[in-house]
Prior knowledge:
Elements: E1 2-9, H1 13-33, E2 35-43, H2 48-53, E3 60-61, H3 65-68, E4 75-78, H4 84-95, E5 99-102, H5 105-121, E6 126-127, H6 138-146, E7 151-157, H7 160-169, H8 175-184, H9 193-196, H10 199-213, E8 223-224, H11 232-240, E9 243-254, E10 257-268, E11 280-287, E12 291-298, H12 302-318, E13 333-334, E14 341-351, H13 356-366, E15 371-376, E16 385-392, E17 395-396, H14 397-409, E18 413-423
Parallel strand pairs: 1-2, 1-4, 2-3, 4-5, 5-6, 8-10, 10-13, 10-18
Antiparallel strand pairs: 7-9, 7-11, 9-10, 11-12, 14-16, 14-17, 14-18, 15-16
Helix pairs in contact: 1-12, 4-5, 5-10, 7-8, 13-14
Amino acid sequence: MKKINIGIIGLGTIGTGVYKILKERRGEIKKRYNIEININKCCDISTAIKKQLKIPSDVFTKDFYEVTNSSDIDLVIELIGGTKVAYEISKETLKNKKHLVTANKALLAYHGKELKKLSIKNNVNICYEASVGGGIPIISSIKDSILVNKINSFWGILNGTCNYILTLMSKGIDFKKALHMAQKEGFAEADPTLDINGKDTAHKVSVLCQTCFDLNLDIDQIYTQGIENISSYDIDVANNLGYEIKLLGISRIINKKLDSRVHPTLISKKNPLSNVKNEFNAVLINSNNLGPYMGYGYGAGMLPTATAIVSDIIRASNLNLDNNFSKDGVKIELKKFEDIKSKFYLRIMIKDAPGNLGKVTSILGKFRINIDKVIQNKKALKSRTIPVIILTKSLELKTLNKALKDITKKKLIQKESLIIPVEDLV
């Protein structure tokens, strides 16, 4: 029987879930996997959790070095979040030749390259299933798939907060009220900035790029746009056109260039991602042998995330080196966001005056932008501007931006325009 001694650093919501699962399921894990998991150390800055979980005094500590430097520990679980202290914990863990399990997508997005090198040097694993998609076993699925498949692309609904808000907005609830409801239900933080501005999704895209393509992608290289400017009106119009609006993380390799971005996207209702509602996450992956396949489940929460972490403990304990990446990662040219070619959903606020819409479409024609549909609703807003929706045929974004610059210069529109790519996801 294989024995593994672990240390847990961070006993918040997720850490508590891990501790409880290991205590409750220890016997079943032992029976099923022939592994005896012992919790040797638990570390947290709060002593209240020690009492709550009834952790023995000789097991509990406030000093994470007692965990990372202990000769009696084989694997460390980092669950404190953030990047500064978590980075120090992770470095010390790997330097001391211990396996590392983490749910920290920001840590991996900013320091993944260095931590990978350390893990390879010291012949230990970094397991991070819970960093993307909560309880969806997407990372392990990708790692297994890579053995016999070349992954070409992925599209992901990777933030439960945004997906929950957009689901509420599809029912006619405005953004501010939907955000408040998400906070009340516990699906959004008191400060939801990292969720709604798309940064949380970008962190997860970076982790997926590391796993799918062996790319060490700088987080600042991923074009990122959040959902703050999406209105219920946009969602209603999209719905009538046969689309759903989702915040997607997208990465694909086209002609040896990487197209990697995060933004609201119109997707057809025929696409399986369109049916992912509320706080659920999903990742759609396309590979050369399998074609498209999708992972779906809760994107967050104590037990789904804790379950993924416990699975990683078993994986790290029961397998040989689980790193599927090279030391330095693959180098690849990045495709600029303005160079992407797509259909676009364009919302502009045209001044309510005779002939203005005609002038706008004339300028679009000058730039050879073909229009699929035009929708205007004079009742949408009680003002002197009219929201006009233009659905374009496929073109490069930079061409559309040039046309909008010309339209703005001629003072035909007010307020900032909204541009949303339309993705076929094939």
